Amino acid sequence: MARFLIGKVLVRDHADGCTSGRIVETEAYPPGDSSSHAFRGETPARRSMFLRPGHGYVYLAYGACYCFNVSSEPARIGAGILIRALEPLEGVPLMRRRRGTDKLRDLARGPGRLAAAMAIDRDLDGIDLCAKGPLWLAASAHPTGAVGASTRIGISREAHHLRRFYERGSPYVSGPRRLNGA
Predict the structure, then answer these.
(1) CA torsion, points 39, 21, 1, 145, in degrees to nearest 10?
(2) CB-hemisphere CA count at 13 Å for 158?
(3) What is the spatial distance between Cα 111 and Cα 100, in angstroms, rounded to a whole number?
(4) CA 20 to 30 Å from 24, out of 115, 139, 156, 175?
């Protein structure tokens, strides 16, 4: 599913206005992955990772920023896909205000920036992303470029797996250049 989400559009309908972006980078956290939030089992805070595929899982990372995931396995099997970066499409002025920057490239490049630009917080945890609502996934009219794979960013357990996917050549992809090559 992590590779499948590359090129899809994440849409946020908010009282301030609509924002959207094309997904250009993801990371997979499959069942049994010791670096996954689901590894130690279901808790009230991680309940959304155990919903059927296509639900949002939102958590606060290091007490500083929210991160957004999509549940990816049948109900009661905890797993998810971290959405790491978007190519901004709609609502760019609103994203700029939310992020406090004019740099288009940096609006949603990285999971914390993405959540801030799209006004994603714990209120959206558990949302069905397959139904139109305040946050949902849509098909894109833009063709998806070649998809690359690399190790995930910022983890120490099971770090050798190629579970990070990104659109090659996209300036909106996060991470070090050595991970974004051919």
Answers:
(1) -130
(2) 15
(3) 16
(4) 156
Q: Which of 177, 40, 175 is nearest to 109 (CA)?
A: 175
The full set of domains in the chain, from first to last, is: 2-179 (3.10.300.10)
pLDDT tens track, the chain, 182 positions: 999 999 999 999 999 999 999 999 999 988 988 788 888 888 888 999 999 999 999 999 888 899 999 999 999 999 999 999 999 999 999 999 999 999 999 999 999 999 999 999 999 999 999 998 999 999 998 888 899 998 888 777 877 778 899 999 999 999 766 666 64
pTM of the model: 0.93
In eight-state DSSP terms, residue 109 is B
